[in-house]
Specification:
Layout lengths: L18 E6 L4 H12 L2 E7 L4 H8 L6 E5 L5 H13 L6 E4 L14 H29 L2 E6 L12 H21 L4 E6 L8 H4 L6 H4 L5 H14 L3 E2 L3 H10 L4 H12 L4 H4 L16
Parallel strand pairs: 1-2, 1-4, 2-3, 4-5, 5-6, 6-7
Helix pairs in contact: 1-8, 3-4, 4-5
Length: 293
């Protein structure tokens, strides 16, 4: 069924379940494709996103024969996380898979961006993820079983000019997932860190980064990224890095000077608009209009 006032689906085609999966950030992009993978593998699901279309995704996935519940909720807040955990608990099923994929992005020079947008990245990517994982991982550990996927990013290994808070949040998740993996292995729970590169998810449009090289560049297919991620999750691998180029980047990042890495990243994320990149003067030599978008 789909809750929050949405009509329940017919369950006459429900098949035997392979387990129960929780997927956040499932309304689009990698999260949606991961939910599709889980449903195709026979898991029943509960989905979360802060967009009403999460219910449409749930209805779509019910056609696979899985029981799918969905909640439109803001996981950047403590109340939102608590409400979602209670929603999951009300279903009275142990969580076998937790796919912690919810996240937001925001680009531009740090001092030129609105502080509320910067803090929203921290609240969603770090506070929300940690809060949800803490509550569900405790229950998995008590049962001695479960698998967790944490969506970080390839940028977690790079300093991120014009993308500073987002990159730092993903670096946190990368480190957090590796540490949690070590702690949870003795409790029978595996933790996998997903490190995708530039992927077609719509995130760059929502982050206001259309005027950057990375915003205009060719992007990986979200379905292919999800395939690599889900296979790694099910095998209990430590890290999933989709794509040869991304694998090379992770190796080079460990060897290259930090200043060089920062310069390369800046070239990809520097906005064309002088005001957004923090220039005090425009390309014409005149003072940049700080109020321009």
């Amino acid at each position: 069924m789909v809750r929050d006032g949405k009509p329940p689906s017919s369950l006459q085609h429900h098949r035997p379940s392979q387990g129960f999966a929780v997927v956040t950030g499932a309304s689009s992009g990698i999260g949606r494709e991961l939910a599709k993978r889980a449903a195709a593998a026979g898991f029943d699901l509960v989905l979360a996103a802060d967009e009403p279309r999460i219910h449409d995704v749930a209805m779509e996935l019910q056609q696979t024969g899985s029981i799918v519940d969905a909640m439109c909720v803001d996981l950047s807040t403590t109340q939102g996380v608590d409400d979602f955990v209670h929603f999951v608990e009300d279903l009275d099923r142990p969580v076998d898979l937790l796919i912690a994929n919810a996240g937001i992005d925001h680009g531009g020079a740090f001092v030129e961006t609105d502080l509320s947008q910067t803090l929203a990245v921290i609240d969603t990517n770090i506070r929300g993820s940690v809060s949800l994982i803490h509550q569900i991982a405790r229950r998995m550990g008590a049962r001695g079983a479960g698998k967790i996927l944490v969506t970080a990013s390839i940028v977690s290994v790079l300093p991120g000019p014009f993308h500073a808070t987002y990159c730092a949040s993903k670096a946190f998740l990368d480190s957090f997932a590796q540490a949690l993996r070590y702690e949870m292995k003795e409790r029978g729970v595996s933790v996998t860190c997903l490190m995708p590169g530039v992927t077609e998810t719509g995130v760059y449009q929502r982050a206001g980064m259309q005027d950057t090289w990375v915003g205009r560049s060719r992007k990986a297919n979200a379905a292919l990224v999800a395939k690599v991620a889900f296979e790694a999750l099910m095998k209990g691998k430590a890290v999933a890095v989709p794509g040869l180029v991304n694998k090379i980047v992770t190796r080079l990042a460990a060897l290259a000077p930090v200043a060089l890495l920062a310069a390369v990243h800046a070239a990809a994320t520097r906005p064309r608009n002088p005001a957004r990149r923090g220039d005090t003067r425009s390309m014409t030599g005149k003072p940049a209009d700080r109020g321009s978008s």
